Automatic annotation (TrEMBL):
GO terms for molecular function: methyltransferase activity; RNA binding. PANTHER family: RIBOSOMAL RNA LARGE SUBUNIT METHYLTRANSFERASE (PTHR42873), S-ADENOSYLMETHIONINE-DEPENDENT METHYLTRANSFERASE DOMAIN-CONTAINING PROTEIN (PTHR42873:SF1). This is 23S rRNA (Cytosine(1962)-C(5))-methyltransferase RlmI. It is found in: Cytoplasm. Residues 3-88 form the PUA domain. Gene3D superfamilies: PUA domain (2.30.130.10), RNA methyltransferase domain (HRMD) like (3.30.750.80), Vaccinia Virus protein VP39 (3.40.50.150). Keywords: Cytoplasm, Methyltransferase, RNA-binding, rRNA processing, S-adenosyl-L-methionine, Transferase. GO terms for biological process: methylation; rRNA processing. SMART domains: PUA. Pfam families: Methyltrans_SAM, PUA_3. The lineage of its organism: Bacteria, Pseudomonadati, Pseudomonadota, Gammaproteobacteria, Alteromonadales. It comes from the Bacteria. It comes from Alteromonas profundi. CDD domains: AdoMet_MTases, PUA_RlmI, RlmI_M_like. Its main location: cytoplasm.
Length: 396
């Protein structure tokens, strides 16, 4: 019989609304023995059953709910059903001839807290970020190979958040013989994904729609792509008819791969330029030199990793956007993003607006961007919404 986690009085509201987290501060007691990752039943102070989830004794997020159905067991069949449902949705979203890489499982939003699976052609890259996901690794890998036979599986559970669960970083082959790099198709463009050493699981699939938007607006534009990483925004811009693209990134290996992407897609190499420099320093230099572009893309890494860091991160976003706005010609466009889940959308808009005031420019928001459709947001879990983007016309 599973251990039971008993909640304090009147601390059941979020679970009754099917939010999948139970925090340590809401728990009155644990009846029975529960080790890290074990399945536990959560009940209210009157003994009413609320949900079944994975126990994590070292995390403030003490239970992550697997199911709100009392008769549902957390077995091989459970993972197979959840992952089959998630796969069916993604297969409706994309033409595999044009796009063969997508987020297959988006953790809580697909009913599998702590589980992220990105599919790159025939290679699945798995991140297991919670004690429950760790416990059921073999079931998850079994379900992947059952649903897509012949798929190679590689693990990239090498992120700091695992420490909060009392888990060490883990990487390595889980099934098959995955290559260290795989070439995918995205909206017809070819992109090389480094699954072993690349950021996250190797690539930012969530920016697919934003890259397409950049391509749409790029015709005849001189484009500055900041935090360019492997240059995929620039590929879309050149494919959309950009006059030139300038990639700025602190990583030379990323810029080398960006150059390879231009060649791989048969785009005009003479229109592509590369600056290996800290973006803040590069933008200040452009400002000092009064150099401006028709389109500036700001896609920085996550600045906010805790609520305590929100104020500091807000200052960082304001600085980068002020200099980014300075770099846009009057009548040009700024595409600016925050991938920080703890950054509210209304606050991000205010930061960009304040940055424009400091730059003594006017911005007009003509579009909003978000994570691509394979990164869904389940209604009971608003935290699933994390990527915010604004398309702004900038004028003097």
């Amino acid at each position: 019989m599973s251990a039971q986690v008993v909640l304090n009085s009147n601390r059941d509201k979020s679970l009754r609304r099917r939010h999948p987290w139970v925090f340590a501060s809401t728990i009155a007691e644990v009846k029975g023995r529960a080790k890290s990752g074990d399945t536990v039943d959560v009940i209210d102070d009157k003994g009413d059953w609320l949900g079944r989830g994975a126990y994590s004794p070292e995390s403030q997020m003490r239970v992550r709910i697997w199911t709100f159905e009392k008769e549902e067991s957390i077995d091989n069949g459970f993972f197979l059903r959840k992952m089959a449902s998630a796969l069916a949705l993604r297969q409706r979203l994309f033409d595999p001839q044009q796009t063969n890489a997508f987020r297959w499982v988006a953790s809580e939003s697909d009913g599998l807290p702590g589980v992220t699976i990105d599919l790159y052609d025939n290679v699945a890259v798995v991140q297991l970020l919670s004690a429950g996901a760790e416990k059921h690794r073999s079931k998850i890998v079994w379900a992947i190979t059952k649903l897509l036979p012949g798929t190679h599986v590689y693990e990239r559970s090498d992120v700091d958040v695992r420490k909060k669960e009392g888990l060490e970083p883990v990487t390595g082959v889980l099934a098959g013989d995955p290559p260290s790099q795989v070439t995918i198709k995205e909206n017809g463009l070819s992109i090389v994904v480094d699954i072993v050493n690349g950021h996250k699981t190797g690539f930012y699939l969530d920016q697919r729609d934003s890259r397409a938007a950049a391509g749409h607006f790029a015709k005849d534009a001189h484009v500055l792509n900041c935090f360019s990483y492997t240059g995929t925004f620039s590929c879309y811009a050149l494919a959309g008819g950009a006059a030139s693209v300038t990639n700025v990134d602190v990583s030379q290996p990323a810029l080398d791969l960006a150059k390879h992407h231009i060649q791989l897609n048969g785009l005009d190499e003479s229109k592509s330029h590369y600056v290996n420099k800290d973006v803040f320093k590069a933008l200040r230099a452009y400002h000092d030199d009064r150099q401006q572009f028709d389109m500036v893309i700001l896609d920085p890494p996550k600045f906010v990793d805790s609520k305590a860091s929100l104020n500091r991160a807000s200052r960082g976003y304001k600085d980068i956007n002020m200099y980014g706005i300075h770099a846009v010609k009057s009548g040009g466009l700024l595409l600016t993003f925050s991938c920080s889940g703890l950054m509210p959308a209304d606050l991000f808009q205010k930061i960009v607006a304040d940055a424009a005031l400091d730059a003594k420019r006017t911005i007009k928001i003509i579009g909003r961007l978000s994570q691509a459709s394979d990164h869904p947001i389940i209604g009971s879990y608003p935290e699933g919404y994390y990527l915010k983007g604004l398309i702004c016309e900038v004028t003097d």
